[in-house]
Amino acid sequence: MVKTMRAEGHTGIVHTAAASQLGQMLVKICKADGIPLVNVVRRPAQVELLRAIGAEFVVDSSSASYEKELVAAMAASGATIAFDATGGGTLGFEIVKAMETAAVQSGAGRASDGYGSSTFKKLYICKNPVAAA
Questions:
Q1: What's the CATH number where 81 sits?
Q2: For the segment 4-16, what is each residue's pLDDT rounded down to a tens digit?
């Protein structure tokens, strides 16, 4: 994920299923490398777990203020690449929408035609083939 982020010119990452073992490793790697990382989780206990290991941006999708918190995390982190490990539903759309909202609010990459921003954003949907079988 970090190599892909760098290769594509992004400066921050968003990922889902962040409380998983892989997610926890990514928190540690990004913290050590100074990479802003937005972690999206499903429960308050997962927020506590990630904060305990040093995660700065953790958003709980079960929170009543989830969308507002997600936009704030995007604005603060500058993340423009996302990896959705859940691979379904509306989460990927919500993440890209939050990226765009943050970009428009900050005035960064404002499109000359008045329609949104010109900030490049990318979403990878990572679907587990074993779970799908």
A1: 3.40.50.720
A2: 999 999 999 999 9
